[in-house]
Input
Amino acid sequence: MTETAVTPPSERAVRKATPGEARAPRRSGRRRIALPYLLLLPALLLELLVHLVPMLMGITMSFRELTQFYIRNWSEAPWSGLDNYTVAIDFDAPVGQALLKSFVTTCGFTVLSVGLCWLLGTAAAIFLQEDFRGRGILRTLFLVPYALPVYAAVITWAFMFQRDNGLINHVLHDQLGIGDSPAFWLIGDNSFWALLVVSVWKGWPFAFLTVMAGLQNIPRDMYEAAALDGAGVWKQIRHITLPSLRSVNQVLVLVLFLWTFNDFNTPFVLFGKAAPEAADLISLHIYQSSFQTWNFGTGSAMSVLLLLFLLVVTGVYLLLTTRGRKTSDV
Output
């Protein structure tokens, strides 16, 4: 009668895995690591085709003397080096002066538009946090400008800003009696304010939607505890709401800044190919410098300079906000 050998528990615990068993977890781990990259591959390829390739072509054009004579085959345009950049940043010459003035106008317009969009969106989101009858209807109405197509919305505003038969002058001048005569909104100095109104009208619902989503993550217990301690509404907003929305606002302000500074559709649809001097945003200015003067080399150089400016501002903003977040956490 044979005896069956029994492996002690200590020996079973330290028994080494076979080579096949050791390789199996490694393979599954590599598959898990590679899966996100495989899922992102179609989006990366589409980004390459839609954005990166045209951007590289634009950078190449900025170093060439590309005019209407070389449109059919732009690769044969003479190489100009940094001449297009020199022309663009020569602020003593008419081209550089016009670009600098457009840049300053765009900066002022962006600061006002982003500030008003954030203020209106945040105020509306905080107001609609309270439960009351008709809150769902108001939320839907507030999101209408964001849901409308840009061209349809801006064309509607262009009709409303007409001097003789527009709704704006009918209300301000005919009904309220403001001004001696109907104002020109699409030409002259008032064009800046007309463009600002349209930009804020179509941009603040995005801020409202983003802030409203961020408010859902703030526990109601914090507001109840603050109310028991005697804190009013403004103190609750200052010490609870705004600090809790810091990370949301950091992303929101950056997105609004990039969208507003690069906005081409709004001024183009509102004013046409030639914007008034008071509302000459840099995106439309670059378009005019390229397609009206047929100097695509200089226009490409202006676009590259704009890209570099936005990259620098974005990098500095992210650096400052990241440091501020780490300091507050400490």
